[in-house]
Every structure is written in C-alpha cells, then in structure tokens.
Specification:
By secondary structure, this protein is an alpha/beta fold. It contains 14 helices and five strands. The protein has a five-stranded mixed β-sheet.
Length: 351
C-alpha cells in the first residue's frame, strides 16, 4: 500500500518556490539572450550582403595586417574553446565571411576593422604546419580527423593557403580615420554574440564619437540607435550602467554574477554608498537580494546593513558528543562539510 504524501512544511514550499523562480529567471534570460544574438546575426548578414554589392573580395597577406587600437575594438579575444571551434570550422568549410580592412596611408599595410580572431587563426594554422615535414603534416591532419569523430579535412589540405585571407578592403581615401573607427565598432558589435562588457563599451564610445560632430542630443541618439540597430531603452540602460554604477558591480554584471536589473536598482545611489555596500556585503550579494531594493528610496547604511544582515541565514549551535580520540578527526570532517555546503548555498543564491 502506497504511503500518503507527507505534507510539505512552509519552509519546504518557500524553498521550492525560490528554486522555481530561479529557473524561470534563467529561462527568461536565456531566451532574451538568444533573441538578442539572433537580431545581431541577422543585421550582420545584411551588412555583409550590402558590402558584397559594392566590393570585390580580395586575398590579402596576413603578414600585412595590423590590429586596430583598443579604443576601436572593445571586444576581448575569443576564449580557448570558441577559438578552437572557429579554427575547426575554418579548416573544414573555409571562411564564412570575409574580414574587413582599411588601407593605411602611403603604406602597403592594412588596419583590421573586423576579423582579429580570424586573422590570428589563419596565422596559427600556417605557422603550425609550416615547420612540419610533409609526413608530419599528414600524420597531424589524420590525428585531427580522428579527434573530430571522423569528419575529415580535405585530402589536398595545403597550409600555404592560409598565408592570405579573404577580405573586403576600404581604400584609405574612401573613409576617414573617424569613419573607420565607427565602422569597426558597428561591425564588431553586430558580429559578436552576447558580450555585455564589449557591448557596453562600444555603445558608450559610439555616443562619444557622435558628440564630436553632432550637437543635437536627439540626433546623436538616433544616429547611434540606427547604426547599431538598438532601441533608445537599450541605449539609456547601457549609459546608466557605464556612468552610474561602480566598476565592481559592473564587473559582476559583465561576468554574469548579478543581473542587469539587479545592478540598475542602484543607478541613483551615490558612488560612495555603492562602494560601501560592495565592500561590506560583496560575498553575500545576489540578484535575488538586490531585487528587493526599491530604486527610488534613499537608503542609509544602517538600513542596508539591517536589510542584508537579515538575509543571511540564521546561525545555530549544534553539540555532539564524540570519543576523545575522534574529536580532532570529527572537527575536521565537520569543518570541511560546512565549507562545502556554504559554497553550494552561495551557488544557489547566485543562480
């Protein structure tokens, strides 16, 4: 005979609701990110189709390509996994889109406007195989094929092909340096997937560049939104994060520790108060806790301290009787267990 279901306590029901809310938030964030990435990808494809109507693809020696300055390209290099995935795709299927270059004045060199990672991949492929004998190359390719579950590279694979890369080239006289900077930002913004840090820096830099040649605020906003294909709400949000939130909380948003909505709760707070909150409760701050804050209320430090102190789980004293010779071993076991469980709780709260 089946046992009747045990009635759940209020604490269990509260925990279940919390976990369900966390999963719902994760799903909503994932869906929003996917839609944002799809919009970017579609706009980038349309941009490349437009370029192809006016420019021929050229094969340019990779040794003549120079990286754009950091104030133009705000995106970090791909992580190792993504980098190797792109390299694998290039070696199997070729370059999906040409890179974009700007010819330097009175020089045979070019500045990369878009395609820093792909250029590096071409160089890495060439350099990897150049110092091998023909037999070593074949053996290496065979190993790559085996590692990739039998999806073979072409039998006529020739590493020398990667000394040059397919590119759309803007001649120096076609665009100014300022226009080259903006084109680089636009293209990289659309090409890269969801990258909160790079996106934020790009949007704010675009506004700065536009302010240098436009005086009407409305015109500036329209220009940036049109170029990047974003709404004014998105623009205002990124500006608020960049200008009104301290770097510590920005980084927690950029790395996914805190949600965008959570850090924006503090956008009207004094910088000093934000810094105090971070220093006082850095390890305990979670999206869930910050979402309980009213963004319009002028909190004092004592109010915040009371609020976040109450959020921390209540502590209890537990007493065990153990044999004298087992005391130290039991104490170490209990400390290790407690440390592990506290880490697990932190991970749940961060999710």
């Amino acid at each position: 005979m089946a046992k009747p279901d045990k009635k759940k306590s209020a604490k269990d029901l509260k925990l279940e609701k919390k976990q369900a809310d966390i999963q719902k938030r994760k799903s909503e964030n994932k869906r929003a990110k996917h839609m944002h990435d799809e919009d970017k990808s579609k706009a980038f494809d349309e941009m490349m189709v437009g370029l192809a109507k006016h420019k021929q693809v050229q094969r340019v020696p990779v040794e003549l390509l120079d990286e754009a300055p950091r104030d133009i390209n705000h995106y970090d290099p791909l992580n190792e996994k993504k980098y190797l995935d792109v390299m694998d795709s290039i070696m199997r299927h070729g370059l999906e889109h040409p890179i974009i270059l700007w010819k330097k004045e009175n020089s045979d060199r070019y500045m990369i406007l878009s395609g820093h990672n792909r250029t590096k991949i071409y160089k890495d492929i060439y350099n990897t195989f150049e110092n091998m004998s023909e037999a070593e190359r074949k053996k290496y390719v065979a190993k790559l094929n085996a590692d990739r579950q039998g999806l073979a590279y072409a039998n006529n694979f020739d590493h020398r092909y990667y000394k040059k890369i397919e590119a759309f080239v803007y001649e120096h006289h076609e665009i100014s340096y300022e226009m080259a900077k903006e084109k680089s930002m636009d293209i990289n913004y659309l090409q890269r997937g969801s990258d909160p840090k790079g996106d934020n820096e790009t949007i704010r830099k675009k506004i700065q560049l536009a302010q240098g040649r436009m005086s009407n605020k409305s015109e500036i906003l329209e220009h940036v939104c049109d170029d990047l294909g974003i709404s004014k709400t998105k623009l205002y949000t990124e500006v608020a994060i960049g200008e009104n939130i301290i770097p510590n909380f920005q980084n927690k948003y950029f790395d996914g520790t805190l949600s965008q909505k959570a850090i924006l709760k503090m956008k009207n707070w004094p910088i000093e108060l934000q810094q105090w909150l971070h220093d006082e409760f850095s390890d305990e701050l979670t999206t869930e806790k910050l979402m309980k804050i009213s963004p319009r209320k002028n909190y004092t430090k004592s109010e915040l301290k009371q609020m976040f102190s109450q959020e921390i789980s209540a502590m209890n004293t537990v007493t065990f009787k153990v044999e004298e010779e087992l005391k130290n071993e039991f104490k170490k076991y209990a400390q290790d267990w407690l440390s592990r469980k506290r880490k697990e709780l932190k991970e749940v709260n961060k999710a």
